[in-house]
Specification:
By secondary structure, the protein is mostly helical. It is built from 6 helices and no strands. Bound molecules: zinc ion.
């Protein structure tokens, strides 16, 4: 017999599953791990821009979905690109 608490937790999980939220989170895979042919290049402005917000800040791992290894590579690539003025350090605020 399940305890009241366990039943409640199971019900909550089921509800999450129904909304597809749980599934979405579980299937989140790093793009660079999934496609081995993709390379992180500091000269590739278009790819790196996807990992920055509109203010020019680097998007955190929990949002970008990249794994630790690739997030580190993205971060250094962005910083390298900034130094070469390929990417901005800070974009102009929208007013
Ligand atoms: Zn990865």
């Amino acid at each position: 017999m399940l305890s009241k608490k366990a039943r409640k937790a199971r019900k909550a999980k089921k509800e999450l599953d129904a909304k597809g939220k749980l599934d979405r989170k579980m299937t989140k895979v790093c793009r660079f791990c999934e496609h081995k042919e993709l390379r992180i290049d500091y000269k590739d402005e278009r790819t790196l821009k996807r990992y920055m917000n509109e203010r020019g800040k680097i998007i955190p791992r929990r949002m970008s979905g990249a794994c630790a290894r690739h997030q580190r590579a993205i971060t250094s690539a962005i910083k390298r690109a900034r130094h070469l003025a390929i990417l901005p350090y800070a974009a102009e605020a929208f007013r």
